[in-house]
Structures are given as C-alpha cells and as structure tokens.
Design brief:
72% helix; mainly alpha; 13 helices
C-alpha cells in the first residue's frame, strides 16, 4: 500500500476529522453555489417596514434583518466572503512561509541566521495591532488588500516548520545520493524536498483557514474589514448585536456558522496532521 493510501486510511479512522472534513466541504459548496442556493438577493430590501425583523418562516428560513433582507441569503453570500478571504490568505501565507523556510534551510549558515532572526523579530510584533492600525488608516480597504495584509503577517510559523524539516532532510541519505548523482537547485527541491515538506504545509494551511476566517470576522465586526452592505459573517453579527433579545436570529445565524467553520477546520487539520505524521509511518 502506498504512503498516500495509508495516510487516507488513518484519516478515515479519525471519525471526528472525517465529519469535520464533510462539514468543510459542505460549507465550501454552499459558498460556491450561493447564487443558486440563496432564496433572495442579499442586498435587496423588499419592505423595510412590513418585513423588518421577521422571525424564521417557510418564506424566510432564517428570518429577516432590520432592513427586511433575507438572513439566509446574506449568510450564504457571507460565506463566500469569509471563506474566500480565509482560503486565499492561508494559501498566500503558507506559500510565503514555505519559500522562506526552504531558502533558510538550504542557504549558508549566515543567510539562515539572518532569515530566522528576521522571523523572530516579526513574531515579536503584535499582529492584530498592526492589522488594526493599517486598516484604520486605510479606509475602505478592498478585500484583496485584507487578504495580503493577513497573509504577510501570518507566514512566520510555517517558515519555521519548513526550515526545520529541510534541515533534517538535507542530511538524509536519499538527498545526499541525489546530490552525488548531480541533482541540485530546483530539481533537488522539486523532486526530493517538496514531497516531504508538502504534508506539513497542507496541514498548516488547513489550520490557518479557520483562524483567518475568525480574524476576518473580528475585523468586519469592528468595522475595519468587509464593510456593509456587503455581507460578511462579522458585519452580520455587528448588525444583529443590538437585537439579541428582539431578533436573535440575525446575529445567531452567522455566529453559529462562524463557530462551526472554525471548529471544523481545526478538527480536520488535526486529523490530517495525525494522518500525515511521518512517525506514524515508522
């Protein structure tokens, strides 16, 4: 049996991780097909007087908000924003981290120390404070800027993990043999290092998505992320915070979706970490 099949078999034995992965897949599909699943336009305000804060019903499954907008529609379109930012920022962050980790692990000791001391300094900086400062000064920052800002302040842990793996792998017998046969540069990285580093990068990205979704929602809740009327789980919670007793469904729906997403990504990441752990192979 191949290592990939053995990893898949170990992952399937982790029932919580499998359930979490199914939830992640369902959330991704719901976000992807939001235009087909949403019963109404998420920005439409059909009747702000008669349909204001209507409780869940057959017509509006999750009710309406104070502007008569359908909460389910906004929840689905909000998933596209929150999950899209989370996935894009996580992908960019692990790409940056893996690149720096590979460079540090393969470079000379002087370059390695320079890169890692820079990472240590970056780790010491308050990430959330920096993001809040930039977004407070940059009014109406687009979603792309939020993605880049979250990514460039969140790749440091991945770089450390990848560097540690590369330092171990470059002394391995199969790498030494490949070098003796003339392999070097991009060929050595692509054929011999990346296949062994990829599992750690995949796990790091999976765990990062949930944390970034939570971070983006927090920024939107503070009015510094995705701004209303564009739907985001964070600004939906913000809009419903003053109606917790009169219309609790407005804030409860995105709040529960956010909780489910973060827990699902973390459980799926933990399961993947166990399944792809090389010590399990031994």
């Amino acid at each position: 049996m191949s290592p990939l099949r053995r990893a898949w078999a170990r992952f399937r034995s982790h029932r919580l991780a499998v359930a979490a992965a199914c939830i992640v897949a369902a959330l991704a599909l719901a976000a992807l097909f939001a235009p087909l699943l949403a019963p109404a336009d998420p920005l439409a305000q059909p009747d702000p007087v008669a349909l204001q804060n209507q409780p869940p019903s057959a017509e509006h499954i999750l009710g309406t908000d104070r502007y008569s907008r359908d909460v389910l529609s906004r929840l689905l379109y909000g998933a596209r924003v929150s999950l899209g930012i989370g996935a894009a920022a996580a992908l960019l962050a692990v790409t940056l981290g893996a690149g720096v980790g590979l460079a540090a692990g393969l470079a000379s000791p002087a370059v390695d120390q320079l890169l890692m001391r820079s990472v240590d300094v970056a780790f010491a900086l308050p990430r959330v404070f920096l993001i809040l400062l930039v977004l407070a000064l940059w009014e109406d920052a687009p979603a792309g800027a939020i993605v880049v800002l979250i990514a460039v302040t969140g790749w440091f842990r991945t770089s450390r993990v990848v560097r540690a793996l590369v330092l171990q792998l470059r002394e391995a017998e199969f790498v030494q043999a490949a070098r003796a046969l003339g392999a070097g540069g991009t060929g050595l990285v692509r054929r011999h290092l990346l296949p062994h580093v990829a599992p750690a990068v995949i796990v790091s990205a999976t765990l990062d998505v949930g944390n970034i979704v939570l971070l983006e929602s927090g920024l939107s809740y503070l009015g510094l992320g995705v701004r209303a009327p564009a739907p985001s789980w964070g600004n939906m919670i913000l809009e419903g915070k003053d109606q917790l007793f009169t219309a609790p469904w407005v804030a409860a729906a995105p709040g529960l979706a956010l909780l489910l997403t973060v827990v699902a990504f973390n459980l799926a990441g933990d399961g993947m970490q166990d399944a792809l752990d090389p010590r399990r192979e031994r």
